[in-house]
Design brief:
Low-confidence stretches: 204-210
CATH superfamily: Phosphoglycerate mutase-like
Number of helices: 7
Number of domains: 1
Strand order of the largest sheet: 3-2-4-1-5-6
CATH class: Alpha Beta
Helix content: 25-40%
Distance between the termini: 7 Å
CATH topology: Rossmann fold
Length: 214
């Protein structure tokens, strides 16, 4: 039987100064467009009966979660374990700068994001190991309910990869657009099912025509 449903939503667009640079778990500013995007998302999601709204402790996630929470008349619960992957010494650099300082490093990461840690930060496996217990906790805390988590792109890829059992390299092909929603269901037998990846919106508490009925 369906136990709980968790909607993961990627934060809005960051400031243009960072769009060609690696920022990972750094607390970078949102662009005005990123804030406006979540005002529109908040209007759409206000109709959904979320039991709770959670967010990473990074401002770009907290800001979007706060806008949705205000529309849903809920408080945001902050959990630092939901922050983006730590990119270590790559933070602030462009891909060209990384290749200059770590020749072959970008290709090594793309070939095996689950194992590559040459930058001194987290691997995708590390990220999944950090986040997965949070999802299990939310599923146990919100039996028969659905919740929203405003978080980050690589986190969402790591979650889907672990739920589906696909490789880290393949997971990099998963779309995680700003404001996109990825939905995972937890069943009583402990099985996780991915219902949607990078969906543009939710409508009326339904996904794919199937009402949420735990």
């Amino acid at each position: 039987m369906l136990r709980s449903r968790i909607h993961l939503c990627r934060h809005g667009e960051v400031d243009k100064a960072w769009r060609s640079r690696i920022y990972g778990a750094s607390d970078v500013a949102l662009a005005d467009a990123g804030k406006a995007r979540f005002d529109a998302i908040a209007d759409d999601l206000a109709r959904i009966e979320f039991a709770a709204i959670y967010a990473s402790d990074l401002e770009r996630a907290k800001d979007g979660a706060g806008r949705i929470a205000a529309a849903c008349r809920l408080e945001v619960v902050i959990d630092p374990r939901l922050r983006e992957i730590d990119r270590g010494e790559w933070v602030g650099l462009t891909l060209d700068e990384i290749e200059e300082r770590w020749p072959g490093g970008v290709d090594a990461y793309l070939a095996d994001p689950n194992g590559y840690a040459g930058h001194g930060g987290e691997t995708h496996r590390d990220l999944a190991d950090r986040v997965w217990p949070v999802l299990e906790e939310l599923a146990d805390r919100h039996v028969g309910e659905q919740v929203l988590v405003v978080c980050h792109g690589q986190l969402m890829r790591a979650v889907v990869a672990r739920a589906l059992g696909i490789s880290g390299a393949r997971s990099l092909n998963l779309m995680t657009g700003n404001g996109g929603l990825t939905t995972v269901d937890r069943f009583d037998d402990g099985v996780w099912v991915v219902q949607a990846v990078n969906a543009p919106t939710l409508r009326g508490g339904e996904w794919g025509g199937r009402e949420f009925k735990p």
